[in-house]
Structures are given as structure tokens and as C-alpha cells.
Design goal:
This protein is of the alpha+beta class and 203 residues long. The chain is built from four helices and 13 strands. The longest helix is centred in the middle third of the chain and has 18 residues. Belongs to the IF-3 family.
């Protein structure tokens, strides 16, 4: 079925179209269930509090009157506050509104920082140069707003002197205390000791 609607030529299967009569205005519309808002004929209220296309407060009018105003403006009637008594509806270009909304959501997701858990491995017998290199990595990750898992793997009889490894991790925590907090203090798990640092929220 092909016909002319208020926004051009539409093809509508007979089962998906319905007939809508507003005063003397007769037109066909594609019936869709909006995910976020009730629009046009999806609105079931007898009367609505209407906001115009420019944001002006028109007041309480019948649904038919509000729908006719939207049709005359070649725009949509959108229920923006369905729980209000009566519901608040606004005349707008819903397609443009959804496009702008999705664009804004996409930008927000792009700007969101995903916190990752980075791992820096130390050793109980680490030398000073290697320690400083790994410490710089910890600082870099924390400054990037990531959490850091500092770990020490004990080999052979080193496990008998786990306190030596604990002192290494405690030194790391002390040296980054201005930018990080210990989310998890050094704890022995099997042959590994693990400490987790998180960015300090005040930095």
C-alpha cells in the first residue's frame, strides 16, 4: 500500500497501518511502539498539559486538540512526563530529538574513563634500579586513573621470608600515598603476595 503522508510517500502494510480521524483531518500513520516515549497516537490520555514547539506553556488541552496542533506544525506530539496528572506532552520533531539524544549519549560514553586493573610485579630481592623503574610504572598507571595490582612471587625458600616482600610492597604504598590509597593491603595468597592500589579521589 502506497500513499502520501504528512512527511512524504510511505509504504505501509495493511496490518501495520491504522486510520486516525482528528476533526476533518484524515491521515494514515505508521504505528510503532516507541522505546523511550509515547508519541502521537500511542498517547492514551484524554487531555494533556501541552508545551509548544518553542517551549511555551500552552496549558491543559484535549489530546485531539494537541494532536491537531502537532499535525498543523508538521511535528510530533511526545509524552515527556507520563506520570504527571495530566501527562505533559510537547510538540517537537521526535526524529531530530532522538538523533541529538543518541549523539549526546555517544559522546558521554566516549568521554567516560574505564578503570582498568594494571599489574606491576616486584620481587622480594629487587635491586634499587629495578625498583625505581617499576615504581614509575605504578605512578603512571595511578595518574591515568587506573588501579594497580602490585604483586610479589616467592620462589623456593623465599616464602619463608615473606615479611621481606611485604616491606617492599609497603614501601611502594608509602611512596605513592599522595596519589593512591591501599584498596587492599598486602596479603599472601599461595606463593604470591598481592596489594591493590587505587587512585586517590582527591587527586
Amino acid at each position: 500500500m502506497k500513499f502520501v503522508g504528512r512527511r512524504g510517500h510511505w509504504w505501509v502494510p495493511p496490518c501495520a497501518a491504522f486510520f486516525c480521524l482528528l476533526g476533518s483531518t484524515i491521515f494514515w500513520r505508521w504505528h510503532t511502539i516507541s522505546k523511550d516515549h509515547q508519541i502521537n497516537e500511542e498517547i492514551r490520555a484524554r487531555e494533556v498539559r501541552l508545551v509548544g514547539a518553542e517551549g511555551e506553556q500552552i496549558g491543559i488541552v484535549s489530546f485531539r486538540e494537541a494532536m491537531q496542533m502537532a499535525v498543523d506544525a508538521n511535528l510530533d506530539l511526545v509524552n515527556v512526563a507520563p506520570t504527571a496528572k495530566p501527562p505533559v506532552c510537547r510538540i517537537m520533531d521526535y526524529g531530530k530529538f532522538r538523533y541529538e539524544q543518541q549523539k549526546k549519549e555517544k559522546e558521554n560514553r566516549k568521554n567516560q574513563k574505564v578503570v582498568e586493573l594494571k599489574e606491576v610485579r616486584f620481587s622480594a630481592t629487587i635491586d634499587e634500579h629495578d625498583y625505581q623503574t617499576k615504581l614509575r610504572n605504578v605512578v603512571k598507571f595511578i595518574n591515568d586513573q587506573d588501579k594497580v595490582k602490585c604483586s610479589i612471587r616467592f620462589r623456593g625458600r623465599e616464602i619463608m621470608h615473606a615479611s621481606v616482600g611485604q616491606k617492599v610492597l609497603e614501601r611502594v604504598a608509602a611512596e605513592v600515598q599522595d596519589i593512591a590509597v591501599q584498596e587492599r593491603r598486602p596479603k599472601l595468597e599461595g606463593r604470591s603476595m598481592i596489594m591493590i592500589l587505587a587512585p586517590n579521589k582527591t587527586t
